[in-house]
Specification:
The chain has about 180 residues and is mainly α. It folds into two domains: about 55 residues, no CATH class; about 80 residues. About 75% of the residues lie in helices and about 5% in strands. The protein is built from three helices and two strands; from the N terminus they run αββαα. The chain has a two-stranded parallel ribbon. The model has no long low-confidence stretch (mean pLDDT about 80).
Length: about 180
């Protein structure tokens, strides 16, 4: 038992130690601050407390920083053009994303409408099936009653035929005895 307790405690301590310093929280106030970018390395766990964060790898970050410095330091029209083109491209992607979101929402609404219509038709069909089941049950009962009545009638008819035959036989015997005497 002590060995298990020691193993569990050592495992817990290793997990705690492995995660210490690896969890980094980006507070929501960070978006309003003018602070230099943070550096994250592989294996870091990020807790983001704002609605969105842009993560840029170091190579792309240095490229943007270099372009930004050139724009600030001179009237380099090429960099300005590049930046404007990039911003236009971002706007284009944003517009396309908004259109896609609207189309997705419309598709979702159409699908929900179809599902609702289908559910209503299934409910109507269930009601119709229940009525048909009741009618079939009533028809089965009527057929059973008719079968019983038919059996009774056939039984009565058989009895009448037997009685008629016995009467006929009796009359025939009586007539035969009378004619023979």
């Amino acid at each position: 038992m002590r060995i298990w307790l020691i193993l569990i405690l050592s495992f817990w301590w290793q997990m705690t130690w492995a995660q210490s310093g690896r969890m980094k929280t980006i507070p929501s106030e960070y978006q309003d601050m003018n602070i230099t970018p943070w550096v994250f390395t592989g294996g870091d766990t990020l807790v983001i407390e704002m609605d969105s964060v842009y993560l840029v790898n170091s190579e792309r970050y240095y490229f943007y920083r270099k372009v930004h410095r050139r724009i600030l330091s001179s009237d380099d029209s090429t960099c300005s053009e590049l930046l404007r083109t990039y911003e236009k491209r971002l706007e284009y992607f944003d517009i396309r994303y908004q259109e896609m979101a609207v189309n997705s929402h419309e598709g979702q609404m159409i699908t929900l409408g179809i599902l609702q219509e289908t559910n209503e038709k299934v409910e109507e069909l269930q009601i119709d099936l229940e009525l048909a089941r009741k009618e079939l049950e009533e028809s089965r009962k009527s057929l059973e009653e008719a079968d019983k009545e038919l059996n009774k009638t056939q039984s009565r008819n058989r009895k009448k035929v037997v009685v008629s035959g016995v009467i006929g036989l009796g009359i025939g015997l009586i007539l035969g005895i009378l004619t023979a005497s």
